[in-house]
Amino acid sequence: MVCTLTLSVLISGSAFSSTTIEFWQFWTDAQIKPVINEIVGDFEKANPDIKVNVTDLTWANGFEKIAIAFNSKSGPDVIELGADWVAQFADAGHLADMSENIKADKDNFHGWGLSTYKDKIYGFPWILGTRVIFANRDLLTKAGYDSTFNPVSFSDFKHAALKVGTLGKNIFGWGSNTAEKHRLYKKYLPFFWSYGARIFSDDGRYCVIASNYAVDALKLYKDLHDSCGYVANQRGIEDAFLDGKVGFILSGDWLLKRIEQENRKINFSTSLFPGKTFPGKSFLGGEILSINSASDKKEAALKFIKFLTLPANQVKFCQASRSSTPSSKTAGQNGYFTSNPHLVTFNKQIALSQHPPVDPDWVKIEDIIEKAVEEALFGKSNLVAEPLRAARHKIEELKKK
Questions:
Q1: pLDDT mean for each 10 residues of the chain (401 residues)
Q2: What pLDDT does 380 receive?
Q3: Would you state the torsion angle of the CA atoms of residues 127, 131, 132, 135, taken in this order, to the nearest 10 degrees?
Q4: CATH code of the region 132-283+361-400
């Protein structure tokens, strides 16, 4: 049952003398954790009546720990959630409705759709992620393209990938994911969305994943995979790209960090994901800061969340992580981002990206979609419509339960 009490109702306007809030988060990297501690310290200095206890989680077991804490009514006041988890916890009534309390902030941040479930907002977008096209400029030059070329349409993209794929025995036009769980569907959905396909109808009553648009998108993905694809997991694709073997890959800003840290001397460019007509739509994900509906310290929790997401603090965080895109539009205009053409690409792509449905069953739906793409790419049949029709049937059966 969805919690119907709003955060604004639950927050009292009265001052409090001393409050301790619990914050659970996932950023434990040696370069990032000190910045988290610094921002927390700055908050406590600015708000001497509030103390923040920070608990670190890991992606290996963080979800289970959060679920157990929520179910036992012992969860933290502020919790960092992967966007895929918001609907599940909101539907169970564990997250406070923040809709009324963030109205003044909505126009200044990207990513609200990630935390919106049944027309209510259950979290503040913090750090976002998307994927853009990385291109090897040297391979494009050998294929006859000049330094200004970037693919803006699927036609341009496919033609260029095929030409690069003819350059030599160990040269490939496109990095194509193998059947890697939680990865493969993120490579297909940008093609899917850019063709105009949808998973559900506008009213949410029907699964439309097997539309002609979806079939055309999977045909293109399979054509690239079969004709010029270097097939490996995400790390393997990136290795091959950095070794000069692949013309185009779809990857995130973590690859920029890797190129910098490994001092890779690769001549590359980044560009927006193409589409039938320019531009296309890439995949949007992110980290969400939510408030426990059972917390009795919601006022302090909200104040802390708004401090964490201040533009200056987001810039500080992203500079430390070297692989994050801020939700704050103001932060994205900071010189750290605007002086780097690749970070400019990522910031532009964030505004041109789409997220999966905010659905309590999304993890199961994701698996169904991923297996359909896997069947189309690696199965015995060359047909792509049948796996999508089978996926539609499975999703429809899931939603009937």
A1: 50 63 96 96 98 96 96 94 96 97 95 97 97 98 96 97 97 96 95 97 93 98 97 97 98 96 96 94 97 97 98 97 94 97 97 96 96 94 92 96 80
A2: 84
A3: 120
A4: 3.40.190.10
Cα dist from 141 to 145, 167, 247, whole Å: 5, 11, 10
Encoded tokens for 220: 């293109």
With H, G, I as helix, E, B as strand and everything else as coil, classify residue 76.
coil
d(CA 134, CA 248): 6
Give the whole-angstrom CA distance, residue 69 versus residue 94: 10
Residue 18: exposure state from Cβ atoms within 10 A (0-12, 13-18, ≥19): exposed
Q: List the structure tokens of 152.
A: 């803006």
pLDDT of residue 128: 97
Show me where the domains of the chain are located: 7-128+284-352, 132-283+361-400
3-state secondary structure 29-66: CCCCHHHHHHHHHHHHHHCCCEEEEEEECCCCCHHHHH
Give the strand pairing for 19-25 and 50-56.
parallel
Residue 7: predicted pLDDT: 57
* CATH number 3.40.720.10 given to 7-128+284-352: no
E strand or H helix at 359: none
| pLDDT score for 100 | 96
The two structure tokens encoding residue 377: 């790419």
Whether the model pTM is above 0.70: yes
**CA dist., res. 219 & res. 195, Å (int):** 11
Angle between helices 184-194 and 362-378 (to 10 degrees): 90
For residue 268, what is the enclosing H or E element?
A: strand 268-271
> Angle at CA 205, nearest 5°, toward 202 and 207?
85
**Domains 7-128+284-352 and 132-283+361-400 belong to one CATH topology:** yes
Q: For position 203, what pLDDT does the model report?
A: 87
What does residue 9 show for φ and ψ, rounded to 5 degrees? -75, -40
Tell me if the bond preceding 279 is cis, omega within 30° of 0: yes
3-state secondary structure of 296: coil
- Residue with the two structure tokens 């941040």: 109
Contact assessment for residue 286 and residue 358, using Cβ atoms and an 8 Å cutoff:
no
